[in-house]
Write a structure and sequence with these properties.
The structure is a single chain. The chain has one domain: Up-down Bundle (Four Helix Bundle (Hemerythrin (Met), subunit A)). Helix content is about 80%, strand content about 5%. The chain is built from six helices and two strands. A two-stranded parallel sheet has the order 1-2.
Length: about 140
C-alpha cells in the first residue's frame, strides 16, 4: 500500500476521487435542503415530522437535482473503476493527472451548469468528462491487447 501512495498517478486519482465524492455528498445535501425549502415530501412520515405536505411526485426543483445526481452516478462511478485500472496498469503520472483533473473539473462544471440551466455548456462539460473516460479506456485496451 505504501508504494501505491507514493505513485503520483495514484495521488492524483485519490485527490480527484475525493473531490468527486465530496461533490456528490453536496448534491445529496442540496437535494434534502430543496425538499425542506419546498416543504413537499414523498414519505408521509417526512412530511409529518418536517412540517410539509405529502406528495405523490417530487417537486420539479427536487427532480432536477435527482437527475443531476443520477447523471453523476452514471459517469463518476465508471470513472472510479477506469481510473483505478489506468493507474494500476502503470499509466504515466502526467497523462493520469491530466485525465483525472480534467474529468473532475468537467463534472464540477456540469453540476454548476445543470443548476443554472446553462445549455450548451452543460453538454460540453458532459462530453469532456466522457472523452476523458473513453481516452483512458482506449489506452487500457491498447495496453491489454
Amino acid at each position: 500500500m505504501t508504494s501505491l501512495m507514493t505513485n503520483p498517478a495514484f495521488a492524483a486519482y485519490s485527490i480527484a476521487c475525493s473531490i468527486l465524492v465530496f461533490k456528490m455528498i453536496l448534491t445529496g445535501l442540496l437535494t434534502a435542503a430543496t425538499r425542506s425549502r419546498v416543504k413537499q415530501f414523498l414519505n408521509p412520515e417526512d412530511a409529518r415530522v418536517l412540517g410539509g405536505t405529502s406528495a405523490v411526485a417530487e417537486h420539479a426543483d427536487v427532480q432536477r437535482l435527482l437527475r443531476m445526481h443520477r447523471n453523476d452516478l452514471e459517469n463518476i462511478l465508471p470513472f472510479f473503476t477506469v481510473g483505478l485500472i489506468f493507474v494500476l496498469m502503470g499509466a504515466p503520472a502526467r497523462t493520469s493527472t491530466i485525465y483525472f483533473y480534467t474529468f473532475t473539473a468537467a463534472r464540477i462544471v456540469h453540476s454548476i451548469t445543470y443548476l443554472l440551466q446553462l445549455q450548451p455548456w452543460r453538454t460540453v462539460a458532459f462530453v469532456v468528462g466522457v472523452l476523458c473516460v473513453v481516452g483512458m479506456l482506449v489506452q487500457i485496451l491498447i495496453a491489454a491487447l
